[in-house]
Sequence to fold (259 residues):
Amino acid sequence: MMGVVDLAFETFGDPDNTPLIILHGFFASSRNWRQIAEKLSAHHHVYVPDMRNHGASPHHSNMDYPSMTADLLHFIDRHDMPAASLLGHSMGGKLAMWFALNHPDRIDKLIVVDIAPISYEHSFDTLIAALTALPLSEIGNRKQAETQLAAAIPDLSYRQFLLQNLLLENGRYNWRVDLDIFRRSATNIVAFPDAGHLPPFCRAPLFIAGANSGYVKAEDIRALFPYAALSFVANAGHWLHVQQPAAFVAEVERFLGFI
Fold:
């Protein structure tokens, strides 16, 4: 039996507006989307949940797209939404797609950010091993942790993003996330479930990708999302909502009908 998790969440905007749910990526949380959520809250009641094992949500030993879809359906039901628009980035984008394929009647509009419904080749093994090896009892401040991770994770902005999961409690640093669950679940996150038994999503979602990313190709989308529009944001990679927030918000609002 699949255990359903009650997701922690933040909300933005007028509750009388139509709901928009933002779904974050692997190692992220609702806090990473606050600025975007505030901008989009002008026309929507924006919900930003923490996925299971992320942020302030409960931990669960099982983490894959079917289990996260069950969490999301429970979340939508709990908030009495007949349907909602979904905006998902990376892992959150795969969750949004899997939810749309399985529960198309609960979707208003669908926006998928820099990810496709395919299994990717990359691995999180080295990254998770580096985080696990960090000697937390010897860390006196976040800068020391960042320095020790530099060799394994050269990208400074990505190191800083990951270290948002490092919490100082009672004078000692601890990981907010369970790295062992992340290690065991990483292959599920990189993959996409077999959708061969499901009909394609027969409405017109928007896929937004970073022009410098390479994660999204039109041919990887068409089988399951034949009516999708694909838009590229210039001068941006996988983190396009951070690198080009104004252009990103404009694309989203145009699709949602507010520009």
Residues 128 and 182 are 8 Å apart (CA to CA).
